[in-house]
Amino acid sequence: MSDQYIVENCSPTLAGLKTGNLFSVKLEKGRDICAEIRALNKILRGKGLCAVPVRMGAKSALVYLYRPDFLERDLQDPDARQILRKKGYACGNASRCLAQLVQHLKQDGSFPHEIGLFLGYPPADVQHFMESPWKGVKCTGCWKAYGNEREAEKTFAKFRKCTDVYRRKLAEGRSLAQLTVRTAKLDWKKRNNKEKGKTT
User: Fold this and answer.
1) CA-to-CA dists, residue 197 to 114, 192, 193, angstroms
2) Which residues are CB-neighbours of 200 under 8 A, at least 6 positions away?
3) Would residue 191 count as lying in a domain?
4) Is the distance from CB of 63 to CB of 179 less than 8 angstroms?
5) Rounded distance, CA 133 to CA 130, Å?
């Protein structure tokens, strides 16, 4: 995987603006995709990111590049938890939820649309899409937005600008490691307890 390919597909996640991105990699003869993912993780793990293959096919692999800390935060959202529970996920542990998503990708006949929750999409939009993909769509970017059109458009524009900037910086000679933002690891359980203490 070239740095350019990662930048084209994952710039908002590299910049700390998004929880995760999915991208497909062709499995050509003699290509060791697992070795490539290990090399990518060696570069990015210190910045708080992780890359995992979530589905391996005969001709391509689907790779998930994400920030585990962000995913933990996102999956604690009550609406996200409700969606996942209905789909049979064991909520409360982001790593276990990711493992279950991988199983769904391998075994389900249809694509598991709850995957949007693992990419940082608003739970309300994920729910709407699961119920009726085309009805009530207000705008489309990284995902189909059904609720706050203005906020969604702002987010889409921010992601596009981020990709443009990263594309330019890479062409100027910046490395993938230099372009990747290190985000502070947050203890979400401790933070939630503090917030509960403030409201009581």
Assistant:
1) 32, 9, 6
2) none
3) no
4) no
5) 6
CA distances (Å), 85 to each of 79, 81, 89, in order?
A: 10, 6, 5
Whether 87 is in a domain gets the answer yes
Confidence of residue 194 (pLDDT cuts 50, 70, 90): very low
Whole domain around residue 61: which residue ranges?
8-180
pLDDT tens for residues 63-106?
999 999 999 999 999 999 999 999 999 888 899 999 999 999 98
From 80, 166, 183, 64, select the one nearest 125 (Cα to Cα): 80
Q: Into how many domains does the chain fold?
A: 1
Residue 188 lies in a domain: no
- Domain assignment of residue 196, yes or no: no
Predicted local distance difference test score (pLDDT) of residue 198:
41
